[in-house]
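Example record

The entry below shows one chain as it appears in the dataset: sequence first, then structure tokens.
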Amino acid sequence: MASSHTTHRLKPQRYWYTFGPNAPALTIQPGDTIIACTRDARGLDEEMRPLPVEMKQRSDDTLYRESNPLCGPIYVTGAEVGDTLVVNIHRIRLNRPYAWSRFMPRFGSFTGEGPGRTLLLNQPLEERLFDWHLDLEKMTATLDLPQSRLGRAEIPLRPFLGSIGVAPRFGRVEMSLSPGEYGGNMDYREVTENTTLYLPVWVKGAYLAFGDVHAAQGDGEICGVALETTAEVTLEIGLEKGKTISWPRLDDGQHLAAIGSTRPLEDCARLAHLELLDWLESDYGFDRWEAFQLVSQVGSMHVANMVDPNYTVAARFPKRYLP
């Protein structure tokens, strides 16, 4: 029997700066596939054209931080509070030969942040832009280093979605720069091709949104900015009815990872590990305390970001130890 699932090519008419129950760009059925082209973190497209004003999320009542414009949101028919959204990331195809990164005042892991102010007495960092050339055939990026003995650096590309999430719980709306229990701007470099991301559904319809593709990034995103670029993204969306999780989860084929986002950093690690233990106990038949012991000896941790309004840590467990 032929599949009744539909592939949707989304051409956004508006990009969003918030995760929440915004006006849906699409309504889909579980099992459908979405293909969409993202803008970079500054709103530039694959030809470096800026995002037109009429395509930006706007309000007469407030100002939005215009970072990480999001595609979507996608309303998933049948998704209800207490379900789990299943996002199979099939493809992230980079579509321009350029990425940028930068230092920014009052942003990054070496600076104190506050609501519009620095929390330190020193002067903020001067803004500085770095231009990276992407070779999309070799899948490498190069950066000229004229002040360094090395002269030029070449690194491998590993594209991933910096921001992907659903509408938050308790009726909240969160800016696209922040991560939380809804996913969001986790900046976790394992959210890449051939992985499955699980997101808790907090609002009927889920309202999935995504963007902020990074061509490469180190753990922690310590300067606050990765290799920011654009891509055509292909996602297949599933739904697990009645399956309740508290934090995002990821399966990359080799590891299970549970993802926690908050402050301080040690609480991120605690949240992620608690979610991982819940997963091993509920789905794989582990005794909770035996799972805790095993994770303590064979687990690993990734600090995904330590620069956003919330930090993000992923607690990982090797699948070879699953029953």
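Notes for this example: The chain has two helices and 21 strands. The two ends are 34 Å apart (CA to CA).
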